[in-house]
């Protein structure tokens, strides 16, 4: 999946990502970077709204896992189960979220559990930056669930 | 501050709240309820996007503290420092966030610390519901900071 394809997928399926004008800067196997501009994501202090920051974090972490799953031809339902945000510094311009697996998250075990049980959990994180400075940390636990195969009588 | 005034304040100052079409259902001293419709807050599964849910949670908790501060004539900068979301069930329609102080949060101690030091922290939470069912819990720690008084030489 190319950055442009992912951007269009997000904008088409998650209207909030379009309202935030989320862009896809980078997709690698181990790392995915989303970004968003200032104007649609402001708060009343003229800095980036905490809700926008948390949303870019969950989108980046979700997209990292989603693109890795697609690459392995796993088409499942992937949803966030719990998440946390640490706001470390205000952001006052374009901001990015760089997603990776969380420390200790094991992709191979995640895939083995998914194939064995049709359901598995994994933790991912996203570090937020603005103007070259680290500004926040998102961590999230996601659940992949095999989608029921719909069979139609012919 | 009336529900309508708060809604306009949010829409004017936090563009994401307008994109989500956030409404203000109730403002009481101890409880504040925000809501949002489905269409602008969908994900690719046809349910409410986790980022929208987390954003309604942080907005409701922030707005509860903000309106209480305004009521006590305290005009400060109020920002979220850390937050967590537990997603308990998918939401598939209009959703609400009902904010209260977190268990153990003491408003009088918060105000005393603010007046003594010009800075204080307090925890608030927001329970999310959709179609009459509880669906998620947001918890957040907020910091109130006295704003520097700007004096201009005449």
Mean pLDDT rating of chain A: 95
Summed up, the domain count of chain A is: 1
**What does the main sheet of chain A amount to?**
6 strands, antiparallel
Rg calculated over all Cα atoms of chain A:
16 Å
Secondary-structure-based class of chain A equals alpha+beta
Description:
The structure is a homodimer of 154-residue chains. Chain A is an alpha+beta fold and 154 residues long. The first copy, chain A, has a single domain (3-146), classed as Roll (Thiol Ester Dehydrase, Chain A), CATH 3.10.129.10. Helices cover 32% and strands 36% of the residues of chain A. Chain A has helices at 3-13, 15-19, 50-71, 107-117; strands at 23-27, 32-36, 76-87, 95-101, 119-130, 133-146. Chain A has a six-stranded antiparallel sheet with strand order 1-2-4-5-6-3. Chains A and B meet through helix 2, helix 3 and strand 3 of A and helix 2, helix 3 and strand 3 of B.
């Amino acid at each position: 999946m190319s950055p442009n394809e992912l951007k269009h997928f997000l904008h088409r399926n998650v209207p909030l990502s379009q309202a935030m004008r989320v862009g896809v800067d980078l997709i690698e196997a181990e790392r995915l970077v989303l970004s968003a501009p200032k104007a649609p994501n402001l708060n009343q202090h003229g800095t980036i709204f905490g809700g926008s920051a948390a949303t870019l974090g969950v989108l980046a972490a979700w997209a990292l896992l989603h693109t890795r799953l697609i690459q392995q031809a796993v088409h499942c339902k992937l949803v966030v189960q719990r998440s946390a945000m640490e706001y470390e510094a205000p952001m006052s311009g374009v901001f990015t979220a760089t997603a990776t697996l969380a420390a200790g998250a094991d992709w191979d075990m995640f895939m083995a559990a998914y194939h064995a049980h049709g359901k598995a959990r994994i933790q991912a994180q996203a570090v937020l930056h603005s103007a070259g400075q680290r500004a926040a940390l998102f961590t999230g636990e996601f659940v992949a669930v095999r989608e029921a195969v719909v069979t139609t009588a012919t």
